[in-house]
Design a protein that fits this description.
Family: Belongs to the major facilitator superfamily. Sugar transporter (TC 2.A.1.1) family.
GO cellular component, one term: plasma membrane
CATH architecture of the largest domain: Up-down Bundle
Protein name: Major facilitator superfamily (MFS) profile domain-containing protein
Order of helices and strands: HHHHHHHHHHHHHHHHHHHEEHEHHHHHH
GO molecular function: myo-inositol:proton symporter activity
Radius of gyration: 26 Å
Membrane topology: Multi-pass membrane protein
Strand content: under 5%
Number of strands: 3
Structural class: mainly alpha
């Protein structure tokens, strides 16, 4: 999942500059808060690390196992099984949070993550790697739900947004750290085993730290363990503020229980049925789910999970080069997350999404055109060059056939292109893919290509890829989560937010499990053109279904959605007198 998933009790929380300053001041004066948030925030770091690390590790897993080299479906499965595990983990984690508390849920998530990291590091076969990925996915799914929830419930209200937003930044920071660690282990024996196994270290650290921390005071209060909750609040808040915060917590939970009572149904099916019977919820859910599905179907996780592979498709054969250049995409994604925090309240949610989608469509078309140009200018396969490697020639290659590099890479038996020794753009040899062919090719000071062909368009592809990330991250990367936090009636926010989150994870799984197969079946350029077409369709659908929620209170959003002449593309003007009365409840 992209990972600007910043949750606060079922919704996204934004923080302004003043809140961040207050956050720094308060954490400095009360180290306990810093310890608490840092310990829980490692969950965000793990989430981001897992997203980033597999992209680089996959290159070396492919080199070690011929079955992975030959099967795009197996490669996709290795990547996507963590996403599948996360879907189950997120659902199970929600039940665990309510039943046993936030702290046990984080400890179980750490244990699953640690077990998965060890299984992958010691895996003798690709199937065992997949099992490890499932364990890691279960842990990631539980942590992605529980860590932000724990932080939001155990932190002072006035800096809550800043602390939860920091958790989101740790996710992108974890991705960037993963690329750096991937680079650090490229020259070490066991490359991918270290890359995947080292993820167990922060999981182990978090497990130890969480054992020393208390349960969420909000959860304890709901379980009628009020004395324990109050004792924790006294550690978090200054003495002058404690009684007020205890009273605020009591009133908040009473209101929450009252809302649950107004729904009447306690079962998930009952709540869902009641929610869908409301026109307001149906309209809100349509907008929320469309925003979440669009976030994934524009292809972002093809970049986050397969970034080094895409760099190789652009014509950079070296694993080291591919991972070094992939640092750019990760860095731009992190910068985009920070930019979004500054602009989302100025530009508005809807406008930022639409501008983001326009940029995404443009740069996906440029990417598709770049790969199309590279394919048309692929160097030919030379009979003379191929004869040099007589015993390692691609089985399908015939001297009478007029093949170029692209024909070689598309061969059924999995072949690679050994570039010309002097100039990689001159005719080269088509060899059967494998360690022996790769070593022989490298021995002649040649590059061996298995994903993309040598060309002069590679740098243009990297520029387009970076521009795509810059377009995506501040808009479609963050805004769908914000819209989902604001668009549902308070009493149905939990169930509707859960549906939208599942839609996001499932869309992520679909994209992750099909990207390499699409590049194999359609070609790289056609795949990016397809994502461009899907993104354009998303632009049209978002325009007609997602309203602007900027500056509206929850009650005003509800009134907007229940209007008879409701049109999402028209700006809703709330009643001025109502706005004046309730300004204290306004939501960013």
């Amino acid at each position: 999942m992209d990972v600007e998933t910043i949750w606060d009790c079922g919704g996204a929380t934004l923080a302004d500059k003043a809140e961040f300053k207050e956050c720094l001041r308060l954490t400095w004066s009360q180290p306990y808060i810093l310890q608490l948030v840092f310990s829980a925030g490692i969950g965000g770091l793990l989430f981001g690390y897992d997203t980033g690390v597999i992209s680089g590790a996959l290159l070396y897993i492919r080199d070690d196992f011929m079955a992975v080299e030959k099967s795009t479906v197996l490669r996709e499965t290795i990547v996507s099984m963590a996403v599948a595990g996360a879907i189950v983990g997120a659902g199970f984690g929600g039940w665990m949070n309510d039943k046993f508390g936030r702290k046990p849920s984080i400890l179980i998530a750490d244990a699953l993550f640690l077990a998965g990291a060890l299984i992958m590091a010691l895996a003798p076969t690709p199937i065992v790697i997949i099992i490890g990925r499932i364990f890691v996915g279960l842990g990631v799914g539980m942590a992605s739900m529980t860590a932000p929830l724990y932080i939001s419930e155990a932190s002072p209200a006035r800096i809550r947004g800043a602390l939860v937003s920091t958790n989101g930044l740790l996710i992108t920071g974890g991705q960037f750290m993963a690329y750096l660690i991937n680079l650090a282990f490229t020259k070490v024996t066991g490359t991918w085993r270290w890359m995947l196994g080292i993820a167990g270290v922060p999981a182990f650290i978090q497990f130890i730290l969480m054992c020393m921390l208390p349960e969420s005071p909000r959860w304890l209060y709901r379980q009628d363990r009020k004395e324990e909750a109050e004792a924790i609040l006294r550690k978090i808040y200054p003495a002058a503020e404690v009684e007020e915060e205890i009273d605020s917590l009591r009133r908040s939970i009473e209101h929450e229980i009252q809302l649950e009572g107004s729904i009447g149904e306690q079962s998930l099916i009952g709540k869902l049925t009641k929610a869908l019977s409301s026109k307001v919820v149906r309209r809100g859910l349509m907008a929320g789910v469309i925003a979440q599905v669009a976030q994934q179907f524009v292809g972002i996780n093809t970049v986050m999970y397969y970034s080094p592979t895409i760099v190789q498709l652009a014509g950079f054969a070296s694993n080291n080069t591919a991972m070094a250049l992939s640092l750019i995409t990760s860095g731009l994604n992190a910068i985009g997350s920070i930019v979004s925090m500054s602009f989302v309240d100025r530009a508005g949610r809807r406008r930022l999404m639409l501008i983001s989608l326009i940029g995404i469509v443009l740069w996906l078309v440029v990417l598709g055109g770049t790969f199309l140009g590279a394919a048309h200018h692929a160097p030919p396969v030379s009979e003379l060059e191929t004869r040099v490697f007589a015993n390692q020639t691609c089985p399908e290659y015939r001297p009478t056939a007029r093949w170029n590099c692209m024909n070689c890479l598309k061969a059924e038996s999995t072949c690679g292109f050994c570039a010309h020794e002097g100039d990689k753009l001159l005719p080269g040899a088509c060899l059967a893919a494998g360690d022996a062919s790769r070593r022989t090719c490298h021995a002649g000071k040649r590059e061996f290509y298995t994903e993309g062909c040598p060309n002069n368009f590679g740098w243009l592809a990297l520029v387009a890829l970076g521009a795509y990330i810059v377009s995506y991250s501040p808009g479609m990367g963050t805004v769908p989560w914000i819209v989902n936090s604001e668009i549902y009636p308070l009493r149905f926010r939990g169930v509707c937010g859960g549906i939208a989150a599942v839609a996001n994870w499932v869309s992520n799984l679909i994209v992750t499990q099909t990207f390499l197969s699409l590049t194999k079946a359609l070609g790289t350029s056609a795949t990016f053109f397809l994502f461009g077409a899907v993104s354009f369709f998303a632009l049209v659908v978002v325009f007609f279904t997602v309203p602007e929620t900027k500056g509206l209170q929850f009650e005003e959003v509800e009134k907007m959605l229940e209007e008879k002449d409701y049109k999402p593309w028209k700006r809703y003007r709330p009643d001025v007198s109502s706005k004046g009365r309730d300004i204290g409840l306004s939501v960013p």
